[in-house]
Amino acid sequence: MIYPIVAYGDPILRKVADEVDENHPDLQKIIDDMFETMYKSSGVGLAAPQIGKSIRIFVIDAEPFAEDEPGLEDFKKVFINPIMIEEFDEKWNFNEGCLSIPKVREDVERHSKITIEYYNENFELVEETYGGLAARIIQHEYDHLEGVLFVDRIPPLKKKMLEGKLRDISRGLVKTDYKMKFPKRK
Predict the structure, then answer these.
(1) Residues 16/145, Cβ–Cβ less than 8 Å
(2) Predicted confidence band at 184 (pLDDT cuts at 50, 70, 90)?
(3) Three-class SS of residue 53?
């Protein structure tokens, strides 16, 4: 099932998501639907709050970045109840976007390496360290589970300049190639 993407302004995007256990109803179907929704929306990552579910799950398929960074061609993962252990090494800027904030892209500074603990789709506990674009995508999606959006990580003046666009997005005054749910659509 393809879910509509929840747009900027919806309160669910600002909540800290709840943990799930391996008996969560329809867990595998939710994961499968998240991948299907992400692919239909041409995303490389999708967090459960973006489909209206306030649970600590995100999915990633970084294959579109494989040309820029070898090793990402098979980087397809499910992260359940992740905990960011450490963000480290130098920070670097990269132009980010978000399915919940269409048509807006900004440079965001993030650490180049992370260590994260999470359960995979088989509910096996994993601790791994990532760098480069993989680390960046994980940090972006992890932020969604903490109620943080990439526009919260840009300088205040830039965010102020985006207020009109963000207001228009929440009202549904933006065209996308994928289904969206707008919190303030008239």
Answers:
(1) yes
(2) confident
(3) coil
Residues labelled catalytic:
141
CA distance 79 to 44: 14
State yes or no: pLDDT of 186 exceeds 70: no
Q: Which residue has the tokens 């943990």?
A: 19
In the chain, what are the domain boundaries? Answer: 5-181
Q: DSSP characters for 106-161?
A: EEEEEEEEEEEEEE-TT--EEEEEEEHHHHHHHHHHHHHHTT--GGGGS-HHHHHH
Looking up tokens 């965010």, which residue turns up?
159
- Which CATH code of 2.130.10.10, 3.90.45.10, 3.10.20.880, 3.40.50.720 fits the domain covering 5-181? 3.90.45.10
Task: For the chain, give the percent of residues with pLDDT over 90.
Answer: 96
In angstroms, the Cα distances linking 3 to 38, 77, 179 are 9, 19, 7
Residue 174 to residue 102: CA distance in whole angstroms: 8
Q: What is the pLDDT of residues 34-82, one digit of tens each?
A: 999 999 999 999 999 999 999 999 999 999 999 989 889 999 999 999 9
